[in-house]
Design goal:
The protein is built from nine helices and ten strands. It is α/β, with parallel strands linked by helices. A ten-stranded mixed sheet has the order 2-1-3-4-6-5-7-8-9-10, with helices on both faces.
Length: 326
């Protein structure tokens, strides 16, 4: 990690996320090998927001670093959105929301997309409270253990990443204080992890999750609605139907339905999703309904892009907060 505020945009699943300028009063902290490097916007920028210094104490900040991993054999970048008062309220512990990004994006997804502004507005108006939002870099892994066993991201996330984050930061460190969410690839992963390990989380949410009943054509190189996905090796060089089914959130929801009743579940998708994920979302809704598993599901107007995510991200945060604050 370096000491600049990154300006590059990410993407969800082949869709580019627009860059949203950050407010001048923010402080962005990156760390590398334990050494802090703080970039503070110059006073000249504060002319654009005269209350800059007066209000800075009420604002959160982002800290980015890399977590060591013996399982993956390389460091994994991540960012943490820290709430106001984190640095001064030294004994307070906070619930944690893990955010999993979409294919083609990275740990900077929420920082660069404008989602941070949404979180701050909700907190400022009392619609959510203070929590940590943690965004690991999942590359193109789908956050699973790959079929060939070379990239065991699930093992890293569960056995190294969560423990490391909740040890380093003042996290609640309990399932009741732990939520998970994601978009597209990350939405698939959030649902999958929560349905496979329901005792680890109190709430799960997903926006336009990559859900298919069967192995999606896009993973075999076949275009879907004119879109082609390449460079995904998690499901094998020649994707395997049985491996896909084994890891499908639909399969896991069906198998573990009896254990999901305590879990708060939310997911949404656009009615014009570019990859047809709305069909998979409807199937998950029907499955959970048949199994009498409480959940919240929405089909909204829109496609598969960051503008769709941003339009409903406030709902996701409020849904997660209700679970994390009980």
């Amino acid at each position: 990690m370096d000491n600049r505020i990154l300006e590059s945009s990410g993407s969800c699943l082949g869709q580019q996320m627009p860059h949203t300028p950050r407010r001048a009063r923010r402080i962005f902290t990156a760390t590398h090998h334990g050494w802090p490097m703080i970039v503070v916007f110059l006073c000249a920028l504060c002319v654009l927001c005269g209350e800059c210094f007066a209000q800075s104490a009420a604002q959160g900040r982002v800290e980015c670093d890399a977590a060591a991993s013996a399982i993956l054999r390389h460091p994994v970048r991540y960012c943490v959105i820290l709430p106001p008062g984190y640095d001064t309220q030294k004994i307070r512990r906070y619930p944690v929301l893990y955010f999993l990004h979409g294919l083609g994006s990275d740990e900077q997804a929420l920082v660069n997309s404008g989602a941070w502004e949404i979180e701050e507005r909700l907190r400022d108006t009392g619609k959510i409270g203070d929590m940590l939002i943690v965004t690991p870099d999942g590359g193109r892994s789908f956050f699973i253990n790959s079929q060939d066993g070379k990239v065991n991201y699930e093992d890293f996330f569960l056995h190294e990443f969560i423990p490391a984050i909740e040890h380093r930061y003042r996290a609640a460190g309990t399932p009741a204080g732990r939520g998970i969410t994601g978009v597209s690839m990350g939405g698939y992963a959030a649902l999958r992890l929560a349905f496979k390990y329901p005792s680890l989380f109190t709430a799960v949410s997903a926006q336009m999750p990559a859900l298919f009943d069967k192995l999606p054509p896009m993973l075999t190189g076949t275009p879907v609605h004119g879109h082609r996905v390449t460079g995904v090796s998690a499901f094998g060089a020649i994707p395997n139907e049985a491996f896909w089914q084994q890891n499908s959130p639909l399969t896991l929801a069906r198998a573990n339905a009896a254990h999901l009743h305590h879990l708060r579940i939310y997911f949404d998708c656009g009615d014009q999703d570019d990859y047809g994920f709305d069909s998979g979302a409807r199937k998950l809704d029907r499955l959970l309904t048949e199994k009498a598993v409480p959940h919240e599901f929405h089909i909204y107007p829109g496609g598969h892009d960051w503008s769709y995510v941003a339009a409903h991200f406030a709902e996701v945060l409020q849904f997660e907060w209700k679970g994390l604050s009980n």
